[in-house]
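Weekly structure sync, notes
Attendees: PL (lead), two postdocs, one rotation student
Agenda item 3: pending single-chain targets
PL asked that the sequence for the first pending target be pasted directly into the notes so everyone works from the same version. It is reproduced below exactly as submitted, 225 residues in total.
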Amino acid sequence: MSTLALPDLPRWVEAHGIAADPASWHRTLGPGFAVGSDRARLIVVGGDADATELDLLARAHPEHTFLVAIEREDLTATLHTHARAVTRAVLHTLPEPDALPELDGAAVLSPDVPLSHLSDALAEELAAMRTIRTVWAAWVDDEPVSFAYAPWRSAAWFDVSVDTAPGARQLGLATIVAAAMIRDERAQGREPVWGADEHNHASLRLAKRLGFEPFDELWVAPPAV
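Predicted structure, written out during the meeting:
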C-alpha cells in the first residue's frame, strides 16, 4: 500500500507506517481519509476528513484508538459523542542525538526469551513485535522487564515505544533501553519521534531526560469507555 498524500512529518509517522503494512486498510472520509491497523487497533485520520463519515467509522471501530490533527477540533467533537476521552498528545523530536546518554545494560530481546512473567497485554505485544522489529530489553534477576522498540516507521522517522513492568520502574531501565533503541534505529537513517499524552508526566520526564524537545501535537481518542 502507498504512504498516501501526506508529508513525511513527525505527526504522520503512524500513518505512513500503517499505510506501508499490507494488512492495513484505507477509508475515504469525504475529501479526507483514514488509514487503519486492526492489529494495533489504531486509526489515523488525515486530509480534509468529513465529520459525518468519521462518525460512521468511529461507530464501526469502538475498540480502536483514533489520531487526529491538532487543528481538527471539529473532529474531536464527533469522537466525544462516542464516549471517547479525547486528549492532547505532545510530539517530541531529538535535536541533538549525539547527546544521548551512554549507558550499558540493554540487549536485543531474542525470540526464545520467555515473557510469561509479564502482563498478558505486554507479553502479547512484545511477542508480536519481536518478529518484525528489533526489541531492546533490560533485565532484572534474569528476566527482561524494560523494553523499547519502534512500532511505526516512515522514510524519515520512527516512533519510540517504551514499556517497563510495574515492579521494575524507577530504576532507570527505561532510559537505558530507549537510548539503545534510538541509536540502533538512527543507524538505519531515521530520526525519532516521541509521543506522550500531556498528562503522562513519567513519559514526558523520560523524553526530556533523553534530550527530546516538544515539536508538534495531535489529538488522541482512545477506545470508547
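Discussion points:
- The chain has a mean pLDDT of 94.
- Helices lie at 13-19, 51-60, 73-80, 120-129, 173-186, 201-210.
Action: rotation student to compare against the earlier draft before next sync.
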